[in-house]
Write a structure and sequence with these properties.
With 462 residues, the protein is α/β, with parallel strands linked by helices. Helix content is 30%, strand content 23%. The longest helix is centred in the middle third of the chain and has 18 residues.
């Protein structure tokens, strides 16, 4: 068998083991793993490097239009997947938001139209119902799942997207019957509204008030309620971007009672804290995300959750905006666009802040960034591992490389870098997607449209 590439001399890392071996790649797949592979057409020297499966980021918002802002966010599918590739991510799952009065299928088709022309890496779609008054909308879920769109997301807060409790239960029941995993953005809309009105009435409009309007209690209340609903209906549930110790405590409670609950966290909660909202000259606006940044104590609780296996996945919620949109002085804190750029820096920062600093093992790094999301969202074993027959989505990490994150190196169209000046030890230096080297030493080599749609299977329990 002829090999297109041999990656020689590296240490292979999966979610369960690490060992020295070479990898042979042919026709976009991992064709051989061993210590004495025949020569390939091209060889890559991985001496001193870790060889890991490419990251599977199951939470991105590329080219997402937000009505109250009146525009899409900064990154389209082209720039978003380009940034992801340079950072070591080889698969993403984006969200298709139902428009009011329209079908779920229309939302999926809109996303695919953009992705097919622009995506550099492989991609899937989560279906996001926002208007259950549309006749037969939930009947679309099993049909779309059979076509490979096998996950759904709901919001319990955030204007335009939030479902009331009755509709949350309808989605949970329909998802259970269709065999789908339900993503949940968990914040308590009623309490957030009350606290926000109270602050605005007192003239407290600055971004420093955002954590007061959305404290950890708002996340914990919604997490408790959604988990209890899901348990009663026997529906598996997946909490996106969990940010607080209180919410994690509610997950522990639900699991102890027998609920099937999975948890994701995101980069901003691990590397930034709510002191950012005290920066002068509206600089703190640039760090607005939902839920907001938390205290250092919550940050520590999340690292503990990853280390002990309570937090299953790590995904970016990549949704950046331009600085002028974030810092517009006419916008009080509830109207500041939420989201920052993460996909280019997420893998490197998790390695540097997690593995290099001894917070998590290198195998845990692979588990949360690649293997677990691939399993939960129906991509395993094609994605998320280094094994013969899997797609050759392979990343080389130099564990000794020192990097300073800078706006100048960013591929995102956003005009500021939230981690500008962070210094890291250990960084991705090569990204291979289905056997093609599409990024090396920070230089991008891909082309729009080479990414393929992943028609995903139903989730696999961890």
């Amino acid at each position: 068998m002829g090999l297109d590439y041999i990656i020689r001399g590296g240490t292979l890392v999966t979610a369960s083991e690490s060992f020295p071996a070479d990898i042979g790649v042919a026709d976009g797949k991992i064709a051989a793993i061993g210590g004495d592979l025949a020569r390939g057409e091209r060889e890559i020297d991985a001496s001193g490097k870790l060889v890991v499966p490419g990251a599977v980021d199951v939470h991105t918002h590329f080219q997402h239009y937000v009505e109250y802002i009146g525009s899409t966010n900064a990154d389209d599918w082209e720039s978003g997947t380009r940034a992801a590739a340079v950072g070591g991510t080889t698969t993403i799952v984006n969200f298709a938001f139902q428009e009011k009065g329209k079908s779920l299928r229309g939302a999926v088709e809109h996303e695919l139209e953009n992705a097919e022309r622009q995506a550099h890496i492989d991609y899937g779609i989560h279906v996001t119902p926002t208007d259950l008054s549309v006749q037969g909308v939930l009947d679309e879920l099993p049909v779309l799942a059979d076509e490979g769109f096998a996950s759904v997301k709901i919001f319990t807060a955030v204007a335009l997207y939030a479902l009331n409790d009755h509709d949350v239960l309808r989605v949970l029941r329909a998802a259970r019957d269709a065999g789908l995993l339900v993503n949940v953005h968990a914040e308590d809309d009623a309490l957030i509204g009350c606290l926000t009105d109270q602050l605005l009435s007192a003239g407290e409009t600055g971004v420093e008030n955002l954590p007061r309007a959305r404290p950890p209690a708002t996340e914990a209340i919604a997490t408790h309620r959604a988990a209890a609903y899901a348990h009663a209906l026997e529906t598996p549930i997946y909490f996106v971007h969990l940010s607080s110790r209180e919410a994690l405590d509610e997950v522990r409670r639900a699991r102890s009672e027998g609920a099937e609950v999975y948890v994701e966290t995101r980069p901003v909660y691990l590397y930034l804290d709510n002191e950012k909202y005290s920066l002068p000259n509206r600089e703190g606006n640039k760090y607005v995300c939902l839920p907001p940044l938390r205290s250092k104590e919550n940050q520590d609780a999340l690292w503990d959750g990853i280390r002990n296996g309570e937090i299953n996945t790590y995904a970016t919620d990549h949704a950046p905006w331009m600085a002028a949109q974030k810092t517009d002085p006419a916008r009080p804190f509830p109207q500041i666009p939420a989201g920052v750029a993460n996909v280019q820096t997420s893998m490197g920062m998790l390695f540097a802040e997690g593995v290099t600093k001894g917070r998590i093992s290198v195998n845990q790094f692979v588990a949360v960034s690649s293997t677990n999301p691939a399993k939960l969202f129906g991509m395993w074993p094609r994605k998320g591992t280094l094994a013969v027959g899997a797609d050759a989505d392979i990343v080389l990490i130099d564990p000794q490389l020192e990097v300073e994150i800078s706006a100048e190196a960013a591929e995102s169209k956003a005009d500021y870098e939230p981690y500008d000046g962070f210094r890291c030890v250990g960084w991705p230096v090569l990204t291979m997607s289905r056997g093609d080297v599409i990024a090396e030493n920070g230089e991008f080599r891909g082309k729009p449209g080479r990414g393929e749609l992943l028609r995903r299977a139903r989730y696999q329990p961890l």
